[in-house]
From TrEMBL:
The lineage of its organism: Bacteria, Pseudomonadati, Pseudomonadota, Gammaproteobacteria, Pseudomonadales. Keywords: 4Fe-4S, Carbohydrate metabolism, Gluconate utilization, Iron, Iron-sulfur, Lyase, Metal-binding. Residues 71-384 form the Dihydroxy-acid/6-phosphogluconate dehydratase N-terminal domain. Its EC number is 4.2.1.12. This is Phosphogluconate dehydratase. SUPFAM superfamilies: IlvD/EDD N-terminal domain-like, LeuD/IlvD-like.
Amino acid sequence: MSDSLLHPVLEQVTAAIEQRSASRRSAYLERLQQAYQRDPRQHLGCSNLAHTLAAQPEAARLIVRQGGSAHIAIVSSYNDLLSAHAPLRDYPEQLKQALARHGASAQFAAGVPAMCDGITQGEPGMQLSLFSRDLIAQATAIGLTHGVFDGGLYLGVCDKIVPGLLIGALHFGHLPALFVPAGPMSSGLPNKAKAEVRQRFVRGDASREELLAAELAAYHGEGTCTFYGTANTNQLLMEFMGLHVPGSAFVSPHGELRPAITAEAARLVARNSRHGERPLPLGVQIDARVLVNAVVGLLASGGSTNHTLHLPAIAQAAGYELSWDDIAALSRVVPLLARVYPNGAADVNQFQAAGGPAWLIRQLLEGGLLHGEVATVAGDSLADYAREAWLDQGRLSWREVPAETVAPDILQPLATPFAAEGGLVLLQGNLGRAMLKTSAIPLSAWQVRAPARVFDSEAAVQRAYAAGEFSGDLVLVLRFQGPRGNGMPELHKLMPLLANLQQQGQRVALVTDGRLSGASGQVPAALHLTPEAACGGLLARVRDGDWLSLDAATGTLHLEVSEAELAQRVPASASETQAAGYGLELFANQRRLVGPADRGASWFDAGE
């Protein structure tokens, strides 16, 4: 499809991003050009090169010393604590062997940290989760700063890991980059059944043994969790941004197709290097059109709210300013085409079987809702990602997905979407700005007006619920959970109890400067509220009993207290002592330096 058929709002948003970012993007591209002119390894002294090659096998040494062939960095987040990353253990050797078949070489340049939000939910360690994204970017840069590589292969899957790898890679954007996923675990206990057991446990109707059995049945093997949270949204967005081997996002870690895709990743990165037939620096590839495509993919799929933080931070790394207003403008014209848990019953394996990202991309391209004529790691058109990968007599090939939806409960065409607008709404009002995920919320819950119940910690909310304090309609206000307050942890321990209240007939909503991510469900939640309470935001002046109104249809969030009354109130301070230990003190500077949520909650460029 020609980009001349683009929806006018896509054109307007893309042009606005380019215009406001012109100076910054120009400076970024100039840095890239200077870096590209410095031929890797040619500037090294003999001792430097000897250190580079000391542990290499003779065949790899010979390739590097002869020159004229690509030498690729492998950066991996492998550990066997994370089920999603456990399959990556053997990838480096597979990639090296595949590169050697194409006359290229590789070295494992860096291992980056990868923490599991599922393990740290409700624990002090969760306060480091968001900060780990920028640390991963720095760790990526440390591996690449040796200056000996012609490209990068990035192995990562979960929440902060892929955005961190991409931010780090963009700071070496003169090199081509390709992201290598591992795929989801096989389907286990359905996500809805798991959530029901969690709600019963919170009510006291299920034992800990029953809850643990359900959790183990849901999370039972290698691969990503099967609900459509941040990890799987990462993988879908890598397809929409053209950074994967086409069709690789949700291929199982096991079976013959996955190693064929991994080998293809090696071939493509060598081809896209300065020594290949199609040089493609990452920083040139990722332009405003690609960023807009990523937002469209996020909206059409009902993806994770975390990406309203990650995409602005990724854009910054590429020399662009992507705003929440851009996301909101696109959300008004991009329909919701997918229902994957938590905004539907299907898991990602069922989504993939129904057509997956390829089906979405084809629909959106045909409707003028994606920039099609963009460079990708595979070619010069996003249309390459509108087909699915398969093995044709043992060879990796691609084929068309069905023209019509084969699972109308999972995927719908543009003509009959699940919702006319995307899955994210920007809320604005006297409290500030917040993001709300609507894709899983029934229309009957889009408007909530109720008195506030104000808390400063997730644990305090749980204690109040256990004591039976939540009666009648209410807006739960949880503050001092922003980036400066305590690192902006996810607050999923709140979801079962709020869902219980909602099912009892109470009208409830959550307003917080913290996060929930892709598992945001049926309860309306105003997230990432900025300015946050710890930075003088009005949230610090809210009191129990104040009336709050939240309206997802009009995009408003309002505290019904007069300006005169608010001016007389002394802002609250966090009522509970900050958690100690768990290495939190090592990140004190990050809490002081981190920028606001609507700029990506990054400690890079926070002062700009």
